[in-house]
């Protein structure tokens, strides 16, 4: 079945057992990945994610059905994320959609699918699957989508401001989601605690008043400069702690996903090119270097440590110290890999 912007958002935020597969296609790969992350969040922090790629599934079509039906090692929720380039996984997907029982849901990211794709046609015709195309947003339609995206995170926007954000982000949904998250933190908003924001907030964020310090510290940590990191942390303001934690978590997850794709056999240049295409120019070089410095396993450990630091920060205990220690340890580990 085909989903529109609102229905795919509702479906990903509250996954239904009746939907076996979500196909996220279209040229805006960042938007598809943002939607995939939204689904992962809905599944819960403890959910197990299994990553597959098109070539491996093409060689063994039964694997997708087997993974969807398999029980998690520790009994937690489970989902499969499959990245394809074209129709190489069509046999596996057809088997999944036709199986008597599927078990765990599958999210397929397919930025290169054409409208004539057999995979796309199969999903559109299936009552137990959803397909959504991500495209760069433009004009008034972009404004309406950004208003809805802002509402989801507790940020209230005028249509004029929403259009401005869409234009500043070149219609890229992933960049828009990132900007809205910064606005959410800036305004201390939440879905159950909505706040209105205006041009002043957008201008301050755009000029780097809130973001520059956390961004530099994140680069110091993942690039392996513990000395600069320690100096920056010592002068960090309390209000910047949460933005720093969020920025570090986003970077760790992004790098982990990039490394998983590279270690899975994808071209490093293609992976890095796709990931940095819409990134802020100051971060493109550091992120490319960091992706070559780390391993997926090492980054998974960093993600787990940052989650522990967040729990400490929320608990009101030694959260600041835990965050600093985690970042400094990350910086030392990166320095040893240089």
Automatic annotation (TrEMBL):
Organism, scientific name: Sphingomonas jejuensis
Enzyme Commission number(s): 2.7.7.7
Protein's recorded name: DNA-directed DNA polymerase
Domain of life the protein comes from: Bacteria
Family listed: Belongs to the DNA polymerase HolA subunit family.
EC category name: transferase
A GO molecular function held by the record: DNA-directed DNA polymerase activity
InterPro entries, alphabetized: DNA_pol3_clamp-load_cplx_C, DNA_polIII_delta, P-loop_NTPase
Reaction equations catalysed: DNA(n) + a 2'-deoxyribonucleoside 5'-triphosphate = DNA(n+1) + diphosphate
Keywords: DNA replication, DNA-directed DNA polymerase, Nucleotidyltransferase, Transferase
